[in-house]
């Protein structure tokens, strides 16, 4: 019998089982073509209809209409750290960054190589254990855009109410919580996310972009680096990552069939609630990194009383089929990633392992 594995890796991450089964069943014969999706021309009508339907599906789930374009790009979210300022930070303007963890630090580092940036807020002094309050955010006088990271994968914190930026175009890296809950996507001029946590396999990065905002982009860039190029060609300017887009389309279908973003949020709250309850009820055995109001529903970061116990926890958890729990090297400790595809059963299994481990070791 197949050993039951619960996969808590931060990304690439667990995918919905029904999606994996469908991929397996369809792999040798995509859409009755007699060949696999990885072998078909991206200009074929069979692929093109999948491609366009995937864009519509994603926009529909996010409540976005024709005034937004959804792009399927490559290079990961890290490439977006550079493309955003290249396209939207002109000389003489400033871009404002909210620094809430390692990924926003990487984003601002890249932007500052390309133009003037302003740190509108940072919680680095507190080791990013919380998000800035509204009163701590100071925008510059006329920024070209504001950038935030909606979920801090490494720190285990998440914005629950996005800041009010008035008329300033708001942009976000949503790599680790896109489609995990309903939110007002129309508040954002641009959203990007690597697929490998909540959307599908690595290889495709989605960029949702407001068309009016796109008109403000620089023209003096290499063609391939302009958002407009990809928008004008429906992300078929060059060969897209067809397999990743195909799997993403199945993940989107699975989200729709499961009840959409509201159902995702309810399930994510329940799953995360089980783990946070173990932390809170453990006395000081498990210590969460994030402050309660800033806690992420996607990545739960915590420490044990000493590094030896942390190593033991990871080893024994792995032996019990609970894998991928080691925290990021920059923070240490443990991290449980509970993206959309993690089941309630998986979260229960982790919670009960935590309880049992504490009883044996405290
Ligand atoms: N932003 C966030 C919030 C992330 O979690 C990650 C990856 N873990 C990245 C950016 C970088 O993504 P990629 O590896 O796709 O460039």
Q: Outline of this structure?
A:
The chain is an alpha/beta fold and 362 residues long. The chain is built from ten helices and 14 strands.
Can you tell me the CATH superfamily of the largest domain?
Type I PLP-dependent aspartate aminotransferase-like (Major domain)
Small-molecule binders here are: 4'-deoxy-4'-aminopyridoxal-5'-phosphate
- Give the ordered list of helices and strands: EHHEHEHEEEEEEEHHHHEEHEEH
Provide the low-confidence segments as ranges.
none
CATH architecture of the largest domain: 3-Layer(aba) Sandwich
Report on the biggest sheet: 7 strands, mixed
| Separation of the first and last Cα atoms | 34 Å
Helix percentage = 25-40%
Number of helices: 10
- Percent strand equals 15-25%
Q: Any idea of the CATH topology of the largest domain?
A: Aspartate Aminotransferase, domain 2
* Rg, alpha carbons: 21 Å
Number of domains: 2
The number of distinct β-strands equals: 14
């Amino acid at each position: 019998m197949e050993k039951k594995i619960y996969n808590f890796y931060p990304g690439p991450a667990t995918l919905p089982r029904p999606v994996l089964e469908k991929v397996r069943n369809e792999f040798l014969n995509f859409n009755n073509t007699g060949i696999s999706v990885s072998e078909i021309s991206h200009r074929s009508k069979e692929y093109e209809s999948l491609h366009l339907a995937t864009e519509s599906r994603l926009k529909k789930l996010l409540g976005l209409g024709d005034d937004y374009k959804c792009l399927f790009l490559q290079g990961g979210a890290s490439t977006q750290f550079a493309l955003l300022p290249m396209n939207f930070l002109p000389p003489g303007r400033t871009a404002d960054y909210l620094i809430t963890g390692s990924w926003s630090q990487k984003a601002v580092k890249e932007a500052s190589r390309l133009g003037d940036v302003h740190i509108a807020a940072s919680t680095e002094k507190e080791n990013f254990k919380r998000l800035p309050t509204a009163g701590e955010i100071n925008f510059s006088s006329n920024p070209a855009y504001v950038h935030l990271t909606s979920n801090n994968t490494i720190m285990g914190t998440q914005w629950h109410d996005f800041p009010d930026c008035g008329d300033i175009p708001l942009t976000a890296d949503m790599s680790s919580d896109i489609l995990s809950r309903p939110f007002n996507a129309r508040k954002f001029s641009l959203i990007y996310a690597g697929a490998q946590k909540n959307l599908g396999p690595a290889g495709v990065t989605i960029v949702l972009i407001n068309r009016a905002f796109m008109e403000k982009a620089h023209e003096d860039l290499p063609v391939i680096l302009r958002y407009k190029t990809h928008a004008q060609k429906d992300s078929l300017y060059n060969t897209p990552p067809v397999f990743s887009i195909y799997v993403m389309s199945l993940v989107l279908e699975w989200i729709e069939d499961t009840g959409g973003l509201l159902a995702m949020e309810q399930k994510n709250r329940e799953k995360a609630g089980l783990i946070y309850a173990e932390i809170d009820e453990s006395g000081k055995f498990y210590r969460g990194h994030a402050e309660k109001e800033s806690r992420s529903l996607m990545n739960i970061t915590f420490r044990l009383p000493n590094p030896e116990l942390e190593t033991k926890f990871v080893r024994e958890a792995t032996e019990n089929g609970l894998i991928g729990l080691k925290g990021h090297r920059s923070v240490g400790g443990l991290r449980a990633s509970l993206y959309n595809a993690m089941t309630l059963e998986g979260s229960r299994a982790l919670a009960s392992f935590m309880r049992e481990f504490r009883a044996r070791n405290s």
